[in-house]
Write a structure and sequence with these properties.
- The protein is mainly α.
- It is built from 13 helices and no strands.
- The longest helix is centred in the last third of the chain and has 38 residues.
- The chain is globular and about 60 Å long.
- About 25% of the residues are buried.
């Protein structure tokens, strides 16, 4: 396969690689990695496309996201005291409803799905910026309705940031087993994934060769910067004992962050609602792009499928 000419780290490296893949073609086309594989190995080798298609269709499902959406909705309604997992019938029912609604929306009203995705994206970015501001404000000594830190640090939340950024505390009690390293790498890769999604829908982007490259790198830079600042904000607020606690091993940092600032009684339900909206936005985006990727596979692989099978409706 061709080596990209861009020498930048992940995830910008992945974006650059995908951009170069599309620059190999006179007309940018939807399809994502399928087009790159066909270019690299040649269309005379349909087995490459078949293998990719099998993996794309069978493994590219959103059942886990949908079940997590159901869990967050139940927690937003009844609080985190109500222990819910993926085997709960209510969570599974909400997962099925979520997937049904998103598929119907994306299949029957394309513009409405795009508008809803844009709204959820704006809300998610606003939430990320708010977390960064609150974390830095807490480190600067700002007062919040609930200060769970005062019991352990008489000064203020500012003492937490000093403690967390001390390398002796930050890297205390490190996990040295293979499972810990694997989990950390997968968590980082999952956090910074998603850069390939626009390449599944290049056919629907206005003048991609002129506008897409710049907008892709600008948006990727903004997201990477926000993610780094958010981790800084978490370290400014969350106690080390809290995120190292076994009772919080399955919890998320956002929940601990808002709990430290506003208390767990209300913030747990509010953050669950925000997380449910975030997961719903991810499902919307994935169904939008995956549908185009699947239709591209059908069109190029399965006997030149009819037009109605590979086109959507506004």
């Amino acid at each position: 396969m061709s080596v990209p000419k861009y020498k930048v780290p992940m995830p910008s490296g992945g974006t650059a690689q995908n951009v170069e893949q599309r620059s190999m073609q006179c007309v940018p086309r939807s399809g994502g990695e399928k087009n790159y594989l066909e270019y690299a190995f040649g269309k005379s080798f349909p087995r490459t496309t078949c293998i990719y298609g099998i993996l794309f269709i069978t493994l590219g499902n959103l059942s886990g996201n949908a079940v997590q959406f159901g869990i967050y909705i139940i927690q937003a309604a009844y609080g985190t005291a109500n222990q819910v997992d993926g085997s709960d019938p209510a969570a599974r029912g909400l997962a099925v409803a979520c997937l049904t609604v998103t598929c119907l929306l994306q299949g029957t009203w394309r513009k409405g799905g795009i508008v809803l995705m844009n709204i959820l994206t704006i809300l998610k970015v606003i939430l990320l910026v708010a977390i960064v501001i609150m974390g830095l404000a807490a480190a600067a000594g700002a007062k919040f309705p609930h200060n769970a830190i005062n019991d352990k640090d008489s000064s203020s939340l500012a003492g937490v940031s000093v403690s967390n950024f001390d390398t002796q505390n930050t890297f205390a009690h490190p996990g040295k087993d293979f499972a810990t390293y694997s989990s950390a790498i997968l968590s980082i890769l999952f956090t910074f994934s998603g850069y390939q999604q626009p390449f599944y829908v290049l056919n629907e982007i206005y003048r991609p060769k002129k506008y897409f490259v710049k907008s892709a790198f600008v948006s990727m830079g903004i997201v990477v910067l926000l993610f780094i600042l958010i981790n800084v904000a978490y370290l400014c607020v969350v106690l080390p004992e809290e995120y190292r606690s076994k009772s919080n091993s399955d919890s998320d940092m956002a929940r601990m962050f808002f709990g430290a600032l506003f208390g767990h009684v209300i913030s747990d339900r509010v953050i669950s609602a925000f997380l449910a909206g975030s997961v719903f936005g991810t499902i919307l985006t994935s169904t939008f792009t995956a549908a185009r990727g699947t239709s591209n596979l059908l069109h190029s692989l399965l006997l030149r499928s009819p037009t109605w099978l590979v086109t959507g409706a506004d």
